[in-house]
Design a protein that fits this description.
This protein has 19 helices and no strands. By secondary structure, it is mainly alpha-helical. It has two domains: 182 residues, Up-down Bundle (Growth Hormone, Chain: A); 221 residues, Growth Hormone, Chain: A (Up-down Bundle).
């Protein structure tokens, strides 16, 4: 088996175990009556909290003391073991702590999988820039396959989604020990703790433009998990309406929502053209407007005459997600000194997937519970989606006026 195939298998299962439940957990939570929308919002903060704390700590362990591929395998086995326990939990507070533990083990594996892939490819003299993206795209494919399996097996509202995820984690954990050795780097021991933890990147907040960028990264990060939290639940809820209950889009809502991930893989290919044509600021602004369109389309959609809106919202998701995450990462790459570039990338991800995710999860949960529930405690979906669209629109307007950046085609593409 070639190295590329071995890494493709790793990438596939890395996101397969996440895709098995991330989009459908709302169906399980509300279907089982475990807790309120505010309590559900707290569940998604576990992703953010774990993203803030764990990647740096596990990075230190892999850099200084422990082979990265072994640590990666152990974390997946531990994550799978905790996920396996979730169906036994019915108390919302206990559910939070169990999910937090699971995410403490899982979230750092995303960075570790990149480290293992980069190290293995470089050790075998591959061009990482050319070879890694086609390997990484199999992660998105794994996520999509898990969504399809969960839906087609009737598992999206049951405990089976967690069993599917756990089995994937166990398989990946065991498989990881067969990957090429990624030994600790002795040179990393000479770094001080500030450098190792990436805290030196916080010096970028002294630069007004970079400070503004990171603030907007956090604010937009708050929107990123909203459709993961509520998208499939929204479409699945139409089963309560007799006229829609037997429609394909309702029965197989998770498969329909997977169009978002398919779109994500395709829009990656369009990014170089848009960056050359419009520049990073405009591309990021397009991303924000795409979020407005994504939420707005869902607000007025339905599974019959409005099905095209659901599908278009999924297609737009690819632009909304990719144009911000990839162009934002490129902005950090071109605007920071090489000495702190890796730390700056870590800070960008921390603001988006850490602080931003926590902000969005908590706020959306409390707002829905306070303002957007019907008398029977069902979701009043239209104002929910419109409020999300309004939030994204405000962010876009503020970004347009407050963020100052001059487009340099050569720098932004060829750096």
């Amino acid at each position: 088996m070639t190295l590329k195939v071995r890494l493709i298998i790793m990438s596939f299962f890395q996101f397969f175990v996440w895709g098995a439940w991330l989009i459908t957990i709302a169906n399980y939570w509300f279907g089982k009556g475990i807790g309120s929308p505010a309590e559900f919002g707290k569940i998604f903060t576990t992703l953010g909290i774990s993203s803030i704390i764990m990647p740096a700590l596990t990075g230190i362990i892999a850099d200084r003391w422990f082979n990265a591929e072994r640590l990666y395998g152990i974390l997946h086995i531990l994550s799978g073991a905790v996920i396996l326990c979730i169906p036994q939990v019915t108390d919302p507070d206990t559910f939070f702590w169990v999910m937090l533990l699971a995410m403490m083990f899982y979230m750092p594996t995303i960075a570790l999988s990149n480290s293992v892939a980069y190290h293995s490819l470089k050790s075998n003299n591959f061009d990482v820039v050319k070879v890694f993206p086609p390997i990484r795209v199999w992660g998105t494919i794994g996520f999509i396959v898990a969504m399809w399996i969960t839906n087609l097996t009737g598992s999206k509202g049951t405990e089976m989604q967690f069993y599917i995820s756990a089995m994937g984690s166990f398989l990946l954990g065991i498989y990881s020990f067969s990957l090429p050795a990624c030994k600790p780097n002795r040179e990393s021991k000479s770094k001080n703790w500030v450098e190792t933890l990436g805290l030196n990147a916080f010096s970028l907040f002294k630069n007004p433009k970079m400070a503004m960028f990171f603030v907007f990264a956090m604010m937009l990060g708050a929107a990123l998990q909203l459709t993961n939290m509520y998208g499939d639940r929204y479409v699945d809820n139409f089963k309560e309406v007799p006229a829609y209950a037997d429609l394909f889009v309702v029965k197989y809502s998770t498969i329909i929502m997977s169009i978002s991930q398919v779109s994500e893989t395709l829009f990656i290919l369009a990014i170089p053209f848009f960056l050359r044509k419009f520049g990073i600021k405009q591309v990021m602004l397009i991303s924000m407007l795409a979020w407005v369109l994504r939420f707005g389309l869902l607000a007025y959609s339905d599974p019959a005459g409005g099905l095209w809106m659901i599908i278009l919202s999924c297609i737009v998701y690819g632009m909304a997600f990719d144009f911000f995450n990839i162009s934002g990462s490129l902005f950090v790459e071109t605007q920071t000194d090489s000495k702190i570039r890796a730390s700056a990338q870590g800070l960008f991800m921390m603001m988006v997937n850490g602080f931003g995710a926590v902000l969005g999860s908590i706020t959306s949960g409390y707002l829905i519970e306070a303002y957007f529930l019907n008398p029977d405690n069902s979701f009043n979906w239209k104002p929910i989606w419109l409020s999300f669209a309004g939030y994204a629109a405000v962010i876009a307007i503020l970004f347009f006026f407050l963020f100052k950046h001059k487009h340099d085609k050569n720098l932004e593409i060829n750096h």
